[in-house]
Design a protein that fits this description.
mainly alpha, Tetracycline Repressor, domain 2, 10 helices, 55% helix, Homeodomain-like_sf, Tet_transcr_reg_TetR-rel_C_sf, HTH-type_TetR-like_transc_reg
Length: 263
């Protein structure tokens, strides 16, 4: 290559396009009329050799034949966690609506708006899917219990205020059905009973800050019964009945020396 200008950079894109091109031998240094040329392996599987200097060509960064995406277009990304969560929430909704016995992969897929195969991909068995949905419901119940605890604390644990909070809670038909679904699952599947007991045990603990532990347990059991009443009658007990029952239970205790400070 003596006598004349050194050759321009050589582009070999045969690996990316399947088209034939000049042979390029691998190696950190190749002489293209000037020693120590540099190589880049770019994302389109294209090998580029460039010379330093004024006539150097920039390395290719994309295949020019590949169309640009429309302006403002957002590249879709797979979201496995998001899809799995949608499936769980869809299954939970169906359990609340019609119970776990009617749950099927097909119904869940339709509710979640995902392919049927996605439900079996993330949950190999219907039992696994049902358990995941019930665990999700138990977490929702626990979150609701935390909110209820804040409301009771704001009212100072006064029985009338507690009864009013329970009345609003029991007026939520979705919440009532959620509680019932967890209890029903615990009856038929002993392994899930700890999930069903979260509400009763948690409510007992919350109320124990304002009355004796025995009284707190009695109120929690009463609210469980009131939950079934609301489920069967499509309406909660009236506020007066709730207030009288809660007040009587919170103030009735064999521990006459009990006080919040004695806990």
């Amino acid at each position: 290559m003596s006598g004349g200008a050194a050759p321009r950079p050589v582009l070999h894109s045969g690996r990316a396009t399947g088209e034939p091109g000049p042979e390029v031998r691998p190696g950190p240094h190749r002489s293209w009329g000037k020693p120590h040329a540099e190589y880049w392996y770019v994302c389109t599987c294209t090998f580029v050799s460039t010379r330093s200097g004024a006539d150097a060509s920039p390395p290719a960064t994309r295949d020019p034949r590949r169309p640009h995406p429309p302006e403002g277009a957002v590249t879709a990304r797979r979201d496995p966690h998001g899809r799995r969560q949608r499936i769980i929430e869809a299954a939970a909704e169906l359990i609340v609506e019609s119970g776990p016995a009617d749950l099927t992969h097909r119904r869940v897929a339709a509710r979640a708006e995902v392919p049927l195969g996605a439900t079996t991909y993330y949950f190999a068995s219907l039992d696994e899917l049902t358990t995941g949905a019930l665990e999700y419901l138990a977490d929702q119940v626990e979150a609701g219990l935390n909110e209820l605890a804040d409301q009771i604390a704001a009212g100072g644990g006064d029985p009338a205020a507690v009864a009013a909070i329970f009345a609003a809670y029991l007026d939520d038909s979705v919440q009532v059905r959620t509680d019932a679904a967890l209890y029903l699952a615990g009856i038929h599947r002993p392994a899930l009973r700890p999930l069903a007991r979260r509400w009763l045990d948690g409510l007992t603990q919350v109320l124990s800050a304002y009355t004796a532990p025995e009284a707190a347990r009695s109120v929690a059991v009463f609210v469980d019964g009131a939950t079934l009443y609301a489920l069967l009658h499509d309406a909660p007990l009236d506020l007066d009945s709730l207030t009288r029952a809660v007040a009587a239970l919170m103030t009735a205790t064999d521990r006459t020396d009990w006080s919040p400070e004695s806990r």
